[in-house]
Amino acid sequence: MRATGLTPLFLSINHLSDGDAARQVIARMGDTPRVLLPDPMPSGRTVGVLSRMDIVVSMRLHGLIFAAGQGVPLVGISYDPKVTS
Question: Polysaccharide pyruvyl transferase domain: from which residue to which, for each copy (predicted)?
Answer without folding.
Answer: 28-81
